[in-house]
Amino acid sequence: VSPAADPAVISPQDPTLLIGSSLVATCTVSPDFPLKAEDLYWTLNGRRLPAASYATLGPSTLSVALARLNGSRQQSGDNLVCHSRDGGILAGSCLYVGLPPEKPVNITCWSKNMKDLTCKWAPGTEGETFLHTNYTLKYKRRWYGQDNTCQEYHTAGTYSCHIPKDLALFTPYEIWVEASNRLGVAVSDVVMLDILDVVTTDPPSDVHVSRVGDLEDQLSVRWSSPPALKDFLFQAKYQIQYRVEDSSEWKVVDDVGNQTSCRLAGLRPGTVYFVQVRCNPFSIYGSKKAGIWSDWSNPTAASTPRSERAAGGCDPKGGEQNTTLRRELKQFFGWVKKHAYGCSNLGIKLYDQWRVWLQKSHKTRNQV
Amino acid sequence: STGDSWGIFTFLCAALCNLPALPALNCSEELGAGQSIQQTYDLTRYLEHQLRTLAGTYLNYLGPPFNEPDFNPPRLARAERVPSATVDLDLWRGLTDNARLAANYRAYSRLLCYLRVLDGQVGTAELRHRLAHFCASLQGLVLSIGGVMSSLGYPLPAGPAGPPAPPGAPAAPNDFLKKMDDFWLLKELQTWLWRSAKDFNRLKKKVPPAVVTLRLEARGF
C-alpha cells in the first residue's frame, strides 16, 4: 500500500550554496511512520556520512552537519539522502554547490554575406562553476532600439549563437553575453561593431588548376569570385595556399590582389600539388577595412609536367636545377626593379618574357 | 472503414519505409503481418541497445546512488503514472493478440510523452542530443506497433494522452523526487523493451508470414 504522504521531509530542500559553505540538514519522519531518529542515517552521493556529524533534534528528527562543501559532483546536484536503518530511502535533497559565473570574454562575431551574424565567446577563466550555467547573447542598435535576444545557440561550438535576420547595415551594434546560474549573473563587456566590418563570404568557387603549357615549374590557378557578393560593392582580396601531395606544409601566396587567376612558379617538376583559395571581402561599400577571410576552398589537385630529358635525372641534378632557378629568380627580381614599376600584376608576364629572353640568350651563349 | 485502415496502414508503412506518403506508394515489398511483427521485434531489440547507452549517461548525470547497479528505491505513489510492464505470468500468457498489442501501444505512447518532457529540461547538450535521438526511434516503434495492429484488423487504442498526466499535471514537488521519477521512467522503459521482445516473439509464432499478405500498389492517392 503506497502511502499518500511522503515518508519523511528534509530541510532545506534543494538548496543552493557557495563552495566552502557549511550546512545543517534535518530529516523529519512523517507521523504515519513508526520510525525514530535513531533508526535513521544519512548518505551524500551514495556515501554514508559519519554518525559523529549527526544530532538528534527530536523523537523523529535527525540532523547532519556538513562542513566546507566542495563543488557539486554533478550539475544535477549532490544527492543528500535520509535512510531508514534497513537502507530504504525516506527522502532526499539535491545540493547545488558552486560558484557564481564569471564574465564571458573574447566575443568575436562574423557575418556571412552580410545576411546574418554569428558570435562566439568563452566562459570567464577556467569556467568550472559546478552549476549549470546559461548563456544569453544580447544585441541592440546603438543609440536606439531595445535589447534583442539571440535564439539559435551552439551553431559554431558550445559557446556560440546565430542571429539569422533583421540586421541593419551602416549602424553600430552593441553585443554582449550574459551568463547566469543559481548563484548569480555575470555580464560580459559590450562589443561594438558594424556588420559591414565583420563580413566574410563563401570560399571562391570553381577553382581550376592547370599546367602552363610544358613549363615544369608552373601551374595556373583560376577561380570565380564568390557569387553571393556579386550585388555588393566590394573588392575581393584573395590568398592561395598550396602544398606538395605528401607534405603537410602549406605555402601561402599573399599578394594575389583582386584578380581571379594566378600563376604559381618555382614548383617541382612532375609533382602533384594541392591548391586552395580563400577570399576576403575587402572594402565593402568603400569601408576601406578588411573583412574576415573565408574558409579555404576544397583542395584542387594538379601536377606539374615532368620533362623528358630529365629521364636519367636523380637528386643531385634536381638540387642543381633548384639553385640555378633561384639564382635566375634573384637576377630576375633585380631586373624587375630596374625595368618594371612594381606592378605585381604584371610580374608573371614579365617573368615569362624574361625567361624567353633568357633562353634566347642561353641559346646564343651555347652556340658560341 | 476498410478504406480507413488501408489509409492508416499505408501511412504507417510509408513512415516505416521512409517514403513520402503521397502520391503513389512504390512500396513493392509485400509487408505481411508476419514481417511487420519481425520488424517490430527487431526495433525493440535495437531500442533496448540504445537505451543502455542513454540510461548509462543519464544516470551518471543524476549521480550516485542513481547510477549504482543495485539501486532500488521505493516506487512512490506518483511513479504509478508510468505504465508498468510487470504482469502476472498467467495473465500475460492469456492475453489476446489485440490486448497484447494494445498494451504495448499504450505503454510506449505514454512513455514517449514523458521522455519528451525530460528532453525539454536541463541537462548537458550531449544528453539532450541522445534523448532526442531515442525519442525519434521510440516514435518509430509506436508507429510500427500501430502498423501491426492495423494489418491484423485491430483498431488503434484511443489517443496516447488518454487518462491524466498532461505535462502540467503533478510534476514532482522537489528535485530529488524528480530524479526518482526519471530513474523509474528509464527502469520501466527497460522492462517494457525486455517484455516487448517476448510479446512479439509470441505473436510471430501465432501469425505465420504467408497467411495475411497485403499488397501495396500505386493507389493513385
Automatic annotation (TrEMBL), chain A:
One of its GO terms (biological process) is negative regulation of neuron apoptotic process. Residues 298-321 are annotated as: Disordered. Keywords: Disulfide bond, Glycoprotein, Immunoglobulin domain, Membrane, Phosphoprotein, Receptor, Repeat, Secreted, Signal, Transmembrane, Transmembrane helix. Residues 103-198, 203-307 form the Fibronectin type-III domain. The gene is Crlf1. Pfam families: EpoR_lig-bind, fn3. GO terms for molecular function: cytokine receptor activity. PROSITE patterns: FN3, IG_LIKE. GO terms for cellular component: CRLF-CLCF1 complex; external side of plasma membrane. The keyword Transmembrane helix applies. PANTHER family: CYTOKINE RECEPTOR (PTHR23037), FIBRONECTIN TYPE-III DOMAIN-CONTAINING PROTEIN (PTHR23037:SF35). Belongs to the type I cytokine receptor family. Type 3 subfamily. It is found in: Membrane; Secreted. It is a single-pass type I membrane protein. This is Cytokine receptor-like factor 1. Residues 7-82 form the Ig-like domain.
UniProtKB/TrEMBL annotation, chain B:
GO terms for molecular function: cytokine activity. It holds the Pfam family PRF. One of its GO terms (biological process) is cell surface receptor signaling pathway via JAK-STAT. Gene3D superfamilies: 1.20.1250.10. SUPFAM superfamilies: 4-helical cytokines (SSF47266). In complex with CRLF1, forms a heterodimeric neurotropic cytokine that plays a crucial role during neuronal development. Also stimulates B-cells. Binds to and activates the ILST/gp130 receptor. This is Cardiotrophin-like cytokine factor 1. It comes from Ploceus nigricollis.
